[in-house]
Write a structure and sequence with these properties.
Pfam families: CM_2. This is chorismate mutase. It is an enzyme of class 5 (isomerase). With 100 residues, this protein is an all-alpha fold. The chain has a single domain, classed as Chorismate mutase (Chorismate Mutase Domain, subunit A). Helix content is 77%, strand content 0%. It has 3 helices and no strands. α1 packs across α3 and α2 packs antiparallel against α3. The longest helix is centred in the N-terminal third of the chain and has 36 residues. It is elongated and about 55 Å long. The model has no long low-confidence stretch (mean pLDDT 97). Bound molecules: ligand ISJ. The ligand C=C(O[C@@H]1C=C(C(=O)O)C=C[C@H]1O)C(=O)O binds next to α1, α2 and α3.
Length: 100
């Protein structure tokens, strides 16, 4: 499928085709990320680690802010999105770690 650059979109209908394409891609990446989180539950259980490790959360945010700047995404937006996403993944880990 040919993708249209933002400047090449001549109507909202054309633009939304691209947004929907990107959302499918984002979902694919998040599903891949969530499979690593599911595996983290088993490894943390074995290694006696908690669901939330603040140093790692902050390190992820540092990485993501740097990458956002490099790729032209607002670093504060990336910071907020990643913290919200990690809160959800940590809640998922917590639920499963305490089930055992
Ligand atoms: C995956 C981990 O568990 C939590 C989830 C994180 C994430 O979604 O990236 C980061 C830090 C964690 O405390 C981890 O500790 O690396």
């Amino acid at each position: 499928m040919t993708r249209r650059q933002p400047e090449a979109c001549r109507s909202m209908e054309e633009l939304r085709v691209e947004i929907d394409r990107l959302d499918r891609e984002l979902v694919r990446l998040l599903a891949e990320r969530s499979r690593y989180i599911a595996r983290a539950v088993a490894l943390k259980s074995r290694e006696g680690l908690p669901a939330r490790i603040d140093e790692r959360v902050e390190a992820v945010v540092v990485n993501v802010r740097r990458e956002a700047e490099r790729q032209g995404l607002d670093a504060n937006l990336a910071d907020k999105l990643w913290r919200a996403m990690m809160d959800e993944f940590i809640a998922y880990e917590e639920k499963r770690l305490h089930r055992k």
